[in-house]
Structure formats: structure tokens, C-alpha cells
């Protein structure tokens, strides 16, 4: 008896798609609304490419392809930032990669795509930091305490963590090991830690051909 | 500066007319014949684009207007939103053509009220603006219609979710009485709707017929790439490879994982392996990571010590997989780690070999 209901629903969805499929593709705001409503009723439109939502509305292809682009950017830049990148830089680089004729993607779209990538086990994660987000793309154990440290870093160009702040040195060391933080031992006063992920100078740099090769298997 | 802002500028063959947007009664005009010349002023920071209209001195029989006289011989038209370029072009045309000299005033208006139809037939600048406004309204209407339809759709989807919950409960109660067939069908319904599998996941896994087919497809697609990459690939690599190849009807990450989980049970020549770190890889059945470890040990011994990055470059592997191999070697006791702020470095385990 469920199959009958399912067929009916499928028809409704088809009708909706014929009228509004464009809207989903065109409008980031509409996508957000759509996703939120799905979440509220307990439906995940991105769970499977074989699901009705993906099939009829094309939401699947949009987000899964975005996932591929995110993976490639993160891989290409990993050696620069240790596998930690701001959402803004990721957004910029992804837009560049997509070219000017592609659909617009919003930071919200990126976050949703990344949430789906987590299940692949290669360490994708999202860390809220001072109003924005850092995207992790390596399986480093950034446990709760590390994320606290990251959150304390001020979002100014070349942010640093003061050694005198009450953060266990152990955690700062962990970030150093992973290459996510750099130590300036020659800084005047106390040693300073820098997070390459937050270097805005690096944002404008293109991904070099060598880095791009690294990204594609 | 005068207080005439928020208005619409109209151009006819005879006059330049400004009408207050809010108060349509308020309407002022300048005959085009009064214009000496016009010039553009580009927009800047905090400044809107402007057209400066230089005028002849007012004639004594000038019609009553906001000012009887002015010390300035020009007026400035400020385009706060848009339209300056087009308007400048049209105004230039009219001034050049001087049609007011030939066309009698009665037929003058380009913009006129079509009193019969009761609509305003708009051409020229105002026409363009109006069309844009209509289009904007229609887009807005489309969006609100879309949202309305979306809400209705979600209501129906919600019903489906409720239905699936009640079915799931029935399955739970009837534990033994449900045929495998029915369970499989139910799972595919859940897949279609994007509803998480509430009950049967523990017993039968999240896989469906679709995932079984997918697993078989993957086995075919991945054979060669795996051989080219030393028999092992991370799941993210596989995701990218497969989806890039497909182009359309892409796999979701979950589809990929669910399919890969079935590889072994379907006796396919690849398998899914999950390392302690959580990293997931696909290996050829013929691939033996433990044997690769022995080779890794040799490489590390030759160099004295290696980090995951160095090892990856040497061997031609991705850093992710290089690290996993070294970690596995460590787990098996062949390597020791030196964990410092300079990074994680691996050494042959001399404790084992030289005790």
C-alpha cells in the first residue's frame, strides 16, 4: 500500500519539478528554504542519487558535483594550509574552478556538500570559528579542545594565538605537527602562532599546476 | 539642490518632464527648445550618475513653475538608480532631431495615456523601466508561487514520512513475520524518499537492490584505476573518479559507501577497508596491504627515517594513503614514531630487531 502512496507522491514531485526546477538551480535562497523544510520533516534529499529528489529536481547532481570540486580544491591546497581552510577561501577557489558560466553557489551550498562528504571517511569536517567556518579535509584528530583553540584565533590577516593565553601548549603543538599552525619563535615578545588557513594574502593565489595535479588522482 | 527627488523622468519630442513618484499631481517640465547642450557626469563614490542640462535664459512668457528665476543656467538630473546612459542617448537624439520644430504639440507626447484601454502605453525609457518592473513583479510572483508550491509539497512529503514510520513500527513488532522481499521493498521506498532507515538498518544494513547493482558496476569501473594506483585508493578518490566519469546522475557519498559495503558479500574482486583512523579505502582483493608494509619498511630503512609526506613523494602515493601505510607498519611493530612539533617521522623499529 505504500507503493501507491509513493507513486502519488512521485507524481506531485514531478509536477513541482516541471514548474520550479529552475528556481532550485537559480536561487541559493530557495535551496536553503528547500533544504530546511526537508530537514524539518525528516527527509534527506541528498541521501541518494537514486532518490526522487535527486532524480526530479536535480538537487543531487548539483551538490555531488560540488563535493567533487571541494575535494579537489582541498587536496590542491593541503600542502599550503595543512588541511584547514576558511569557508571563504574555499568558496573563492571553488567559484574560480567552476568558471563564469556555471551556476552560482553559496557558502551554505558548500557547507551542505561538505556535510555529505564526511561519510567518505577522509576527515572532512566543519569547525565553527568566530562567526564563520573552517573546513577540515584531513583525518587529523581535531577534538573539542583543538577547536576551542581555533576559535580563539582572531580572524585578522595572519591570525595568531598568544602563547600566554590559557591554552595548553600540547594543543598548539598538535596543530603545528599537522601543519595547520606555524610558530614564529623570533617574534618580539612571546612566540606567536599563525594559522595559514587564515592568511588572506594566500587567498588570492591561484592553484598552481603542480597543486592541481596533486588534486586529481 | 532642489527637493525634487524620487521621481520619474520622461522624455517627449517636445519636453523633458519630471513627475513625482509618490505625488503624481506634481509634474514639472522643461521645453527641449530651451536646452543649449547637455553633458554627462559619471557616478563616483557617494555620487550618482548625472546629466547636466544647460539652458537658455528663461523667456518672459515662461509658464509658471517651481522657480521664477535662478542664478544658475543649468539643471542637473541625478539618476540614483539607473538609466542615465540610455536617457542621455535619447535626450541627445531628441535635441539633435529637434522634432519640436516640426511636430505640432497636439501629437507630441511619446508617453500618453491610452484613455480607451485605460492603460498607459509606454514606450521609450519609461517603457523599458515599466517592462523591467513587470518582470521583477513576475519573478517575485514566481518565487512566492514556488514557495507556496514547496510548502504544499512538503506537506505531502511529511505524510510519507509518517507512513514510513508506522510501517517501520509494524515491522519492528512483527519481527519474524516480514518477508525479506517486503523488507527490501520497504528499504527502496525509504531510499526514494530520502528517509533514514529507522529499524532494519541493524539487521540488514542500509544496502538495497540499487546498491547491489552499483557495487557490481563499481567493480567493473575501478579495476583498471586500482591497478594503476598500486591496488589501493581512498574513497574520496573513488568518489571523484566515478562522478567525473559519470557526468550526470552522480552518486551521493552515501550511495558510494553503501555500495562498497556490499563488495565483499557479493564476492567481487574489490573490497572496502576501514583503517583505525577512519580512513576508508577500496583495495583489490589481490592487494595485500600487509605485504606492502614490508616494502615500506625497506624504504624507510634505506632512508633512515621518513615522514608521510616524504614517503608519499618517494613511492608516488597520495599522502593520505602513505600515512595509513606507515601507521599500519607501526601497528604491526615494524616502525617506530618520533612525534615532535616538526612533524611525525617514522623509523625502523630497532627495539624489535635489535633486542
Q: What would the average pLDDT of chain B be, to the nearest integer?
A: 81
Number of helices of chain B: 11
Largest interface: A-B, 59 and 65 residues
How do the helices and strands follow one another from N- to C-terminus of chain A?
Answer: HHHHEHHEEHEHEEHH
In CATH, what is the class of the largest domain in chain B?
A: Mainly Beta
Mean pLDDT of chain A: 79
Residue stretches of chain A low in confidence (pLDDT < 50, at least 5 long) are 155-167
* Overall morphology of chain B: elongated
Plain-language structure description:
The complex is a heterodimer of chains A (217) and B (355). Helix content of chain A is 56%, strand content 11%. In chain A, α1 (2-26) runs antiparallel to α2 and α4 (59-81) packs across α10 (209-215). Chain A is built from ten helices and six strands; from the N terminus they run ααααβααββαβαββαα. The model of chain A is unreliable at 155-167 (pLDDT under 50). The radius of gyration of chain A is 20 Å and the shape is elongated. Chain A is mainly alpha-helical. Chain A has helices at 2-26, 28-41, 52-57, 59-81, 87-98, 107-117, 144-152, 169-178, 200-203, 209-215, and strands at residues 84-86, 124-129, 132-137, 160-162, 182-184, 192-194. Chain A has two domains: 1-57, no CATH class; 64-198, Winged helix-like DNA-binding domain superfamily/Winged helix DNA-binding domain (Arc Repressor Mutant, subunit A). Chain B is 46% helix and 19% strand. In chain B, β13 (335-340) and β14 form a beta hairpin. In chain B, α5 (209-228) crosses α7 (253-261), α8 crosses α10 and α9 (308-315) packs across α10 (319-331). Chain B has four domains: 7-98, Roll (PH-domain like), CATH 2.30.29.30; 147-204, no CATH class; 207-284, Winged helix-like DNA-binding domain superfamily/Winged helix DNA-binding domain (Arc Repressor Mutant, subunit A, Orthogonal Bundle); 289-352, Winged helix-like DNA-binding domain superfamily/Winged helix DNA-binding domain (Arc Repressor Mutant, subunit A). Chain B has helices spanning 84-97, 124-173, 180-193, 201-204, 209-228, 235-246, 253-261, 289-303, 308-315, 319-331, 350-353, and strands at 7-11, 15-20, 27-31, 35-41, 49-55, 74-79, 112-114, 119-121, 232-234, 270-274, 280-284, 306-307, 335-340, 343-348. The chains are: A mainly alpha (217), B alpha+beta (355).
Amino acid at each position: 500500500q505504500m507503493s501507491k502512496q509513493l507513486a502519488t507522491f512521485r507524481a506531485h514531485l514531478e509536477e513541482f519539478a516541471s514548474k520550479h526546477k529552475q528556481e532550485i538551480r537559480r536561487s541559493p535562497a530557495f535551496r536553503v528554504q528547500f533544504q530546511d523544510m526537508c530537514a524539518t520533516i525528516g527527509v534527506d534529499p541528498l541521501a541518494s542519487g537514486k532518490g526522487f529528489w535527486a532524480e526530479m529536481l536535480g538537487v543531487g547532481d548539483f551538490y555531488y558535483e560540488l563535493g567533487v570540486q571541494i575535494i579537489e580544491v582541498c587536496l590542491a591546497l593541503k600542502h599550503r594550509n595543512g588541511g584547514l581552510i576558511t569557508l571563504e577561501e574555499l568558496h573563492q577557489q571553488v567559484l574560480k574552478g567552476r568558471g563564469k558560466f556555471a551556476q552560482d553557489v553559496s557558502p551554505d551550498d558548500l557547507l551542505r556538500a561538505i556535510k555529505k562528504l564526511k561519510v567518505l571517511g577522509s576527515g572532512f569536517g566543519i569547525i565553527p570559528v568566530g562567526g564563520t567556518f573552517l573546513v577540515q579535509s584531513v583525518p587529523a584528530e581535531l577534538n573539542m579542545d583543538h577547536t576551542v583553540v581555533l576559535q580563539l584565533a582572531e580572524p585578522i590577516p595572519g591570525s595568531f594565538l598568544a602563547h600566554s593565553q590559557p591554552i595548553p601548549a600540547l594543543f598548539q603543538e598538535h596543530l603545528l605537527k599537522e601543519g595547520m599552525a606555524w610558530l614564529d619563535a623570533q617574534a618580539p615578545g612571546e612566540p606567536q602562532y599563525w594559522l595559514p588557513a587564515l592568511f588572506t594574502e594566500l587567498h588570492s593565489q591561484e592553484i598552481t599546476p603542480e597543486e592541481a595535479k596533486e588534486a586529481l588522482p | 539642490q532642489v527637493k525634487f527627488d524620487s521621481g520619474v523622468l520622461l522624455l517627449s519630442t517636445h519636453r523633458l518632464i519630471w513627475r513625482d513618484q509618490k505625488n503624481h499631481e506634481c509634474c514639472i517640465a522643461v521645453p527641449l527648445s530651451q536646452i543649449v547642450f547637455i553633458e554627462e557626469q559619471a557616478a563616483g563614490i557617494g555620487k550618482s550618475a548625472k546629466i547636466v542640462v544647460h539652458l537658455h535664459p528663461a523667456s518672459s512668457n515662461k509658464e509658471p513653475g517651481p522657480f521664477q528665476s535662478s542664478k544658475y543656467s543649468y539643471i542637473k538630473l541625478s539618476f540614483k538608480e539607473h538609466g542615465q546612459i540610455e536617457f542621455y542617448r535619447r535626450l541627445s537624439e531628441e535635441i539633435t532631431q529637434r522634432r519640436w520644430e516640426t511636430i505640432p504639440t497636439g501629437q507630441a507626447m511619446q508617453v500618453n495615456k491610452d484613455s480607451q484601454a485605460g492603460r498607459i502605453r509606454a514606450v521609450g525609457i519609461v517603457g523599458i523601466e515599466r517592462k523591467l518592473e513587470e518582470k521583477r513583479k513576475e519573478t517575485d510572483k514566481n518565487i512566492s508561487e514556488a514557495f507556496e508550491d514547496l510548502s504544499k509539497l512538503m506537506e505531502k512529503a511529511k505524510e510519507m514520512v509518517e507512513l514510513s514510520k508506522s510501517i517501520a513500527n509494524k515491522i519492528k513488532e512483527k519481527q519474524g513475520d516480514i518477508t525479506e522481499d517486503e523488507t527490501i521493498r520497504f528499504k527502496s521506498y525509504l531510499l526514494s524518499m530520502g528517509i533514514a532507515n529507522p529499524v532494519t538498518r541493524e539487521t540488514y544494513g542500509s544496502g538495497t537492490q540499487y546498491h547491489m547493482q552499483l557495487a557490481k558496476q563499481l567493480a567493473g569501473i575501478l579495476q583498471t584505476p586500482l591497478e594503476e594506483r598500486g591496488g589501493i585508493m581512498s574513497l574520496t578518490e573513488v568518489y571523484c573518479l566515478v562522478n567525473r566519469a559519470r557526468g550526470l546522475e552522480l552518486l551521493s557519498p552515501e550511495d558510494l559507501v553503501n555500495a562498497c559495503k556490499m563488495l565483499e558479500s557479493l564476492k567481487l574482486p574489490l573490497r572496502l577497508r576501514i583503517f583505525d583512523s577512519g580512513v576508508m579505502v577500496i583495495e583489490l582483493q589481490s592487494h595485500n596491504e600487509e605485504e606492502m608494509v614490508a616494502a615500506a619498511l625497506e624504504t624507510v630503512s634505506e632512508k633512515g627515517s621518513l615522514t608521510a609526506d616524504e614517503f608519499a613523494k618517494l613511492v608516488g602515493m597520495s599522502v593520505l594513503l602513505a600515512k595509513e601505510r606507515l601507521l599500519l607498519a607501526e601497528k604491526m611493530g615494524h616502525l617506530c614514531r618520533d612525534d615532535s612539533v616538526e612533524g611525525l617521522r617514522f623509523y625502523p623499529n630497532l627495539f624489535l630487531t635489535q633486542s
